[in-house]
Amino acid sequence: MTTAVVPGRRRAPRVTHKRAIAVFVAPFATLFTLFYLVPIGYAVYQSTLVVEREGTFGPPTQVFGGLAQYAQVMQSSAFWDSVLRVLLFGIVQVPVMLGLALLFALLLDSPLVRGRRFFRLAFFVPYAVPGVIAAIMWGFLYSPNLSPFRPVTQSVDLLSADLVLWAIANVVTWVFVGYNMLIIYSSLLAIPAEVYEAARLDGASQVRIAWSIKIPLVMPAIILTAIFSIIGTLQLLAEPQVFRTFSSAVTSTFTPNLLVYSTASVPNVPLAAAFSVVLALATFVLSFTFLKVTQRKAFQ
Fold first, then answer.
1. Torsion angle of C-alpha atoms 168, 171, 172, 173, degrees rounded to 10
2. Are 93 and 227 found together in one domain?
3. Is residue 1 part of a domain?
4. Global pTM?
5. Into how many domains does the chain fold?
6. Distance, first Cα to last Cα, the chain
7. Residue 11 lies in a domain
């Protein structure tokens, strides 16, 4: 069936809203450019400079040095040791944290649990505590001389070189489990109730529903929290910085961001900028690879 076209009849003009779109996009584009793109560009520019002096005690001047700073980054054993340290941290801490977040979200979504509002708030409260305050609080709990649990802390030195990394992991887990739990729990609330009713009519138990329906349907939220966690792991700074006051095992090169901070404080801003650029690229590659691998498995 064809539609007859009336001769001489003009089509209605296409309505465009280019000005309105520009007005709404302009605030975000301005802030994104000023506080994201410009700092990144300035960091890349700083990483191409080197510091030179005229004589032994001459004033320092910054001149273009090409990739000289990146050559130092590649040769820096302290930088790569710190990267390997946080990768080991993430391999253990991220699955534990997300596993707890998923478990708590499933418990809150279960019809068998009472007092959901209380437990939802109780699980989320640690995230409301600033990371520095949480690190100070746990640092006192770990300290053999200050902790109220002296029999434990004096027999097991949680601030020693062998255990301090996992002591920090415990702090990060305690803070961010509630945050990730809320993301997963919000995804659970978006699942239609008809899906659960059909499963119950088929005789599925609550455990079966959680394993076969809930977890697969919230997998995008789990992947999202995993990517956030990977990025946060490589940016670890506040907790190790606080723990330096409690433990001599936490050095200025303990994590990549601590190394960047201490290098910039020397001051050697160009080298710190090169560290930052390489760390940002490593974070992007790791996060992008994880996303692609998980998406490929999801569609198999």
1. 120
2. yes
3. no
4. 0.86
5. 2
6. 42
7. no
